[in-house]
Write a structure and sequence with these properties.
Number of domains: 2
Radius of gyration: 24 Å
Bound molecules: zinc ion
Shape: globular
Distance between the termini: 56 Å
Structural class: mainly alpha
Strand content: 5-15%
Number of helices: 11
Oligomer: single chain
Order of helices and strands: HHHHEHEEHEEHHHHH
Strand order of the largest sheet: 1-2-3
Largest sheet: 3 strands, mixed
Amino acid sequence: MMMTDERKAWLRGAYLDRIIETAMHYAANHTHFADAEWEAYIVGAFEYLIELTAEDHGYLREQAGYEAWQRIRVALGEASQTAFSKLRHNNGDVIDADANFALGIGWISLLQHAADRVRTYPEGWRARIAGAKEKFGCCVVHIGCDYDQSGCRSEVERLREEVRLRSLSMCELCGESGRLRLSGFAKTVCDQHAVVMGEFREDDGRWADPWAWNDDAARIDDLLAKGRALMSEYPAETAEPRRGLDPVRPRPTQHVMDESDDPLRSTPIGMRIDEDTWNMSGREKELLIEFGWYIQDAVKGAAVKVEFLDGYVRDEVSGWRGYAAQPLTASDEEFLHGYLRGLIDDEYERMRLKQKAERNK
Ligand SMILES: [Zn+2]
């Protein structure tokens, strides 16, 4: 028999003190909520209330779990807000005052490292950290700069990639050494925090760098056929409109660096983007110079089922608005949307062919 809403309301009211007390005790000793740890803590917690049924006990456990989760979430949110405000404040010369950091505080040292490095750049580059986020277990940093300046683009790309690779061996929650782990989602955490992820996938431990997933036949199978994509629904981006307007920076127009030195050219996708860049002209060329690295990241991170691709591409491109040298027009976005989607479609086709070839072996 289902418990009635009246019964639930009565239980919650009558035992609220005990629910809160149980939740607070757990929250005081845990920085993160993990189902497995919670289950072990709460089992039998209300059974001394012998006047209640087993079903009542279950409902009280559920309520206490919700309260504990809420308390931990609020405490974590406050700690993270404080830490990121301090980071922005201490590095006001190189980090935007409204930089958005959508990641765990375990990676804050990586952001400090990025800030220290940006501080060494020539003033003419006008380089600023505009934000950072967690994406498929990696720390992705957004840096605005004047790509027309000699050496600027390759150095900024190198810094972004260095931070991303370092994040793959550092716990996003506490900063201890960790590795990429896969459950219903991807996250880089230490052994101690692995418990927040719930049940692991069978291929957990096989991947050190999610940007290499695109070469795996089994994962391709997931994406294209079985519908068991790693991210069957990717997390929605928090596309925060930029508060306050940036001074308009000139758009980059020239190919200023030594090609062999360009980190973008170290992967086949990056090389193709770079070649397209210099074969295009006008606005389109400017957009590819500015967003080449973002486009590459977005192609490599496109671990979504085909039916979610439109939404994925739209969210990626709208996420770049906050970092654009100048506001993106509707036609700018339309171009970026089409270009990115085209690269992803080609990549999926390449994966399909590769998979077919492996099957026929
Ligand atoms: Zn940790």
